Every structure is written in structure tokens, then in C-alpha cells.
Amino acid sequence: MRNSRKITAVILAVVTIFSIMAFSVNASADYTDVKNKPAIIRSSVDVRKEATTKSDKVMHLNEYAFVKILDYVTKDSVTWYNISANGKTGYIPKTAADVIFDIGMSTATVNVRKLPSTLLGERVTGVKEFDGFYIHEKVSNAEGDWYRITVRTNILITVYLSGYIKAEYVELMKLPASGEYNAKYNESVKLNITARNVPKNIVMTVDKTTIPSTGKYEFTNAVDLGQMKESREISVAFTDSAGNVMGNSVVKINVDSSFIAKISAFFSFLFSGFKWGSKTIDVK
Predict the structure, then answer these.
(1) Using an 8 Å Cβ cutoff, are 85 and 98 in contact?
(2) How far is residue 154's CA from residue 201's CA, in Å, rounded to a whole number?
(3) Do residue 156 and residue 62 come from a single domain?
(4) What is the per-residue pLDDT across 41-77, written as a single tens digit (0 to 9) for each?
(5) How far apart are CA 21 and CA 17, in angstroms?
(6) Which residues, other chains included, contact 150 with Cβ-Cβ below 8 Å and sequence gap of 6+?
(7) At 45, phi and psi to the nearest 5?
(8) What is the domain-level CATH number for residue 59?
(9) Is 47 exposed, middle or buried (CB count within 10 Å of its CB: 0-12, 13-18, 19+)?
(10) 26 in any annotated domain
């Protein structure tokens, strides 16, 4: 009897030590800037006009609604998010929403767990290779690096499930970087934007036009004789299957339309046999 008690005590001690090691979690500093990030409501909440529960209610948001974080403020030791949703703005407690910092894609069929541990974390759901999900946080413990995520499933009804997934099975989606490119007045610009790391339940759009998960989008700035070409901004975004924008970048093409540029373009047009020039820009 005494031996069995000793064995039980040893087992409990080992489990306790392991638990402490497993949950000595360190959060990543990369996931701290919340401004202009999308977020998903964790539990239904009233949106207030000011950052206090005594303020007037602007609207009510249900669980899993999507919002945009505009800013944050801390009052009386409580942090509030200033959010935008349904054409309105207001404040909600920080604890009511999970900020979406990244979009991830699973590189294998793997379990999503309630806790960041393969032994102590109960299975919440599973994701298959190329499934996409929202990333809220990156943590590290004795078992390695983990991402806290939300998975959107659509079997009979739409269900959102949250949990942890090992970082080694996650590939982060990357939008083409925002940037500016220059073009001449007499150039027709072809813009190639390559879609990268796009999972099957996320789409990439260019000026709201969906492009394939592989391949390139070609934007042609058509030129007609006498047409005044202007600079243009082109929006590139990741959108989920519900139409929520998960991230965006802006590509700007600056066209020199000064008087000197126009005169130069005119003579180039004449000496080229009445042909416009062309320029191809690869955005990465």
C-alpha cells in the first residue's frame, strides 16, 4: 500500500512539474500592434460610445462577428478597443475580441488543441493540409512554439473553433508588399501580382477581382492617343469565404504626366511608328 502511494505521489509530482514546464508560456512580441487589424468577437458584447460600461450603447455584436480595430485605450486598468463594424464605431473591452494578426495555412493534417500541449491539451478539432485559419497569438513553452488560432468550419452550419496548433505545421500567408512604382506617360503598364501561400478557404483579390491561388494577375493600363494617364492605387487583399478582409496592401503606380513628359511621350510616339511603349512590373 505504501509503495503504491509513493508511486502515485511520484507520478503526481512528475505531472505537476511537466504542467509547470508546459505552461510557462512566453508570448511573441510580434503580435502586439493591434491598430487597423481585423478581429473576431469572442463573446457577444455591447459596443459603447465611450470606453466605459456607463456609456450609451451604440450597437450589439454577436459572437464571431468581425470588426476592425482602430485604436485602444486603457481606463481604470481596463483596456478597451476602439472598433469599427457595420458602418459604426465604438468601444468594446479587450477581452471581448481576438485580434487577427496573421492568416495561417496548415502544412499537414494535425490536431488543434485546447491548451498548447500535445499531452495535456484536449483535442478541439483538426485541420487538413492547405486549410486556412486566423492567427491571434504565438506562444512558446517546453514543447516548442504554438499558434493560438480560430478555425472556420462549414459542414452543415458555420462554426468557429479556437485552440492551439504547433508552429511547425503552420505556413504564414504573405501579401505582396505595399510599394510605389514609376511609369512613363507613354507606357502601358502590366502589373503581375503573384498569389503566394493562399489556402483553399481564403482568396486573394486585386481591386476586388479574385485571382487564382497560383498564377498571376495582369493589370493593363491601356493607352489611347491623347488619353491622360494618371497615377493609380491598386488594392491587394486576403478575403475569407465570408467576405471578411483579413489583410491588405496597396500598390501605387506613379505616372509622370508633366508637360515635359507629355511632349517627350508625343515625340516617342511619332518616332516609334505610332506605338506606345510598355512596362511590366512584378510585385513580390
Answers:
(1) no
(2) 10
(3) no
(4) 998 999 999 999 999 999 999 998 999 999 999 998 9
(5) 6
(6) 40, 98, 100, 133, 134, 136, 160, 161, 162
(7) -150, 150
(8) 2.30.30.40
(9) buried
(10) no
